[in-house]
Amino acid sequence: MSFLAPGLNDRGLAYGDGLFETLRLEAGRLRFWPEHLARLTWGCRALELPEPDAVVLHAAIYAAVLESGRLDAVVKLIYTAGAGARGYLRSQTPSPSLTILFSDLPDTPMASAPNGLVVGVLPDQSTGSLPTLRGLKHLNRLPQVLARAAWPADLDECLLCDAQGQLLGGTQSNLCWLEGNQWFTPPIAGMAIAGTVRGLLIRHFGVKVVPLAWGRLSLARALVLTNAVRGVQPVARILWPKATASAIAEQRLALAPAQTLAAGWQALCLTDHTAHAGDSAFKPADLMQTAWVSSLNQEGFLSMPIHNP
Fold first, then answer.
1. Alpha carbon distances (Å) from 184 to 126, 194, 198, 273
2. Which residues pair with 227 in a beta bridge?
């Protein structure tokens, strides 16, 4: 299979008909690439898009990496249904388009926020989504755009709730919280993303999946936010909205346990041996063995199998 460059009639531009992945490129390697490939493959199955050939996709990405001259960057893949005529109906044989974008890596959490992040909590932001879209990194991100616009200026991130008062995660992150000596993360619901870092923490650090009601967060000793680009970020404070029933306007969190988890994450990253840009012997990973797939299978989340390319 080959990929087309997007045109003005691309369905991704017109209808958000597609998916994206955001990855961390370090020393010429895409960090935990098999986890992202598993999620992209599952997203294609859910949206009934042609699945990318893993070898061809890897070659296209690394050709772009080499052309960019970058060894360290944020890499964004935008994979769409390709060109189409007017109207919502896709072509019977869609030809996907692929866009690869590069941007500078952000500072590490310790450099950008050495004293921990400050996060807020947004009440129900109409976070419901179609069951088919749950967990996907699809191109329709208006709820996150609107939630981001609602942030107070002094916050680093905001946590989102659904109409039932369940916390889902941040606008661009998953969350894990510590009660006693056990780390937890909420199940994937609403517009929460099924994150790759989340899956790896579940597999390697024994994080358990349990619902997180609004009031339960007040029991947290520590909190981290996770995403593929920034890794594991410790949170120092939660600022609760004035309308909340919680008696705590500001909740302070212990940084030491969160920093220990973040250090463990950095150590895990050193064990990742994803193929380098110059590795011509690249072979696709067994997607069924990725932490992303196994963690979601444990949750009973995946409604369809992911086959190896």
1. 24, 15, 10, 27
2. 231
Q: Is residue 133 part of a domain?
A: yes
**Containing structural domain, residue 46:** 11-105
Q: What is the pTM of this model?
A: 0.89
Instruction: Write the Ramachandran bin of 255: left for phi over 0, alpha for psi from -120 to 50, otherwise beta.
Output: alpha
Q: Which of 234, 254, 269 is the last residue of a domain?
A: 269
Q: How many domains is the chain built from?
A: 2
Q: Which of 92, 150, 89 is nearest to 121 (CA)?
A: 150
Average pLDDT over residues 132-148: 82
How many percent of the chain have pLDDT more than 70?
A: 86
Separation between Cα atoms, residue 167 and residue 164, nearest integer Å: 9
> At 22, which CATH number?
3.30.470.10
User: Tokens representing 74?
Assistant: 């944020």
Distance CA 304, CA 308 (A): 13
Work out the number of other CB atoms within 10 angstroms of the CB of residue 134.
Answer: 18
3-state secondary structure of 4: strand
pLDDT tens figures, 225-251: 999 999 999 999 999 876 555 555 889
Same-domain status, 25 and 160: no
Which residues, listed in sequence order, are joined to residue 178 by a DSSP beta bridge?
Answer: 183, 222
Q: Count of CB atoms within 10 A of residue 87's CB?
A: 8
DSSP state, residue 245: S
